Amino acid sequence: MVFFMKNSIIDIINNYNSFFLNKKNVIGIGRGFKVINGINTKELSLNVLVEKKVSLSNLEKNNIIPENFLGIKTDVIQVGRINLNNRESNLPKPRLQSNPFSLVRPLRAGYSISPINSEFSGTLGCIVFDNLNNKPYILSNNHVLADNNKLEVGTPIVQPGGELNKNNIIGKLSKVVYLNLSLKKNEGYFDNVPNHADCAIAELFPNIPYLKHIPSIGKVTGISTINLEDKVKKFGISTHDTEGVIENLDVVIKCPVKPGANAIFSKQIAATRMSDKGDSGSLVVDANKKAVGIVFCATKSLTIINPINLILNYFNVHF
Fold first, then answer.
1. Are 204 and 241 part of one and the same domain?
2. Which InterPro entries match (predicted)?
């Protein structure tokens, strides 16, 4: 019964997401447990993620979310506005003994990176290696390393991020998964090709020493098979070492990647909020230090994660 329910919900998410995403306030749908009066019923439901709950009396008929859809119960969850997790360089920096905004050599995950001359910085998620020649690359988001499709392959990448100093160049943008965007202003969603990951890699220059371990985590031990209610953690430049719990899987969500442009992402993972601006690109791992994915956006109550298996396959790389 649970297997049938799971597959039925996934089918709805994959084939009927536009029915929900076209409704006012809806930013995503996913597979999770239904919560009633703050109590987790452990019953699988189609979770409809909304920016803000609105009473039925204030909704037009076409914006009302049905209590059941094709025989599956729905649960409307208020999550707040969604935003990317890149950080403006003029935001205050945390005071730590080991500051993630400082220059660090050997290079390691969890520290700030950006294209040279960028106003924004994100987090170096991890070091990955080419499956053919074992060449090292740094992994982060497209919006961190390629500024949402704007930058060309070969653009210098600096550490720390937001730097103008050419002496701090560590590599060059190498491969990018380009984002399919809706460029229609003032609308939430229209049918377009969904994205699966906001990611890019940069080739490390041979003279840049690096370490494989991630602060507060250590070395990645493999790829996680993630489940609802699993505990996860990450290390990022803004919130550092934080933990979360998986609340939704198989998520389809729309994210405003730049003014007037949305990107639709499918097959995403949603955890309780564990990130903030600057944490984009952070690698998320499970309790066994197995990789789950990378942080790319968040709402007031959720962090959205790109699944790592898709990313590694895109770039033909490994840990």
1. no
2. Peptidase_S1_PA, Peptidase_S1_PA_chymotrypsin
